[in-house]
Design a protein that fits this description.
This protein is an all-beta fold and 127 residues long. It is built from no helices and eleven strands.
């Protein structure tokens, strides 16, 4: 089992920034593709961003591209989500996820492609 723990959520005004972190207790962390998903109240879980195991490929949802940046530090067993220009519609519980991909360049975007999940961290963006 891969244990993932998110941190960095909070309350921020529209236009502001937050940086989320997800730390993993896994010695083979560098072998995993990683992603961030979010779930707003009354809605399903949506893809936000993903990164391949070597960090060379990233994918973003259209709603966050240009505002959010996913990155990873394999030496620290941590994946990050830098969120800029936040909007009220970004309000959600943000969860990180991990999976052993088929290739080094894989960065899956569907939630059912991931095997391991963190508990999530709340992000609230006010007007």
């Amino acid at each position: 089992q891969v244990q993932l723990v998110e941190s960095g959520g909070g309350l921020v005004q529209a236009g502001g920034s937050l940086r989320l972190s997800c730390a993993a207790a896994e010695r083979t962390f560098s072998n995993y593709a990683l992603a961030w998903f979010r779930q707003a109240p009354g809605k399903g879980r949506d893809f936000v961003a993903a990164i391949s195991r070597n960090g060379g490929y990233t994918a973003y949802s259209d709603s966050v591209k240009g505002r959010f940046t996913i990155s990873r530090d394999n030496a620290k067993n941590t994946v990050y989500l830098q969120m800029n220009s936040l909007k009220p519609e970004d309000t959600a519980v943000y969860c990180c996820a991990a999976v052993l991909p088929l290739t080094y360049y894989s960065a899956p975007v569907r939630s059912d492609e991931y095997d391991y999940w963190g508990q999530g961290t709340q992000v609230t963006v006010s007007l």
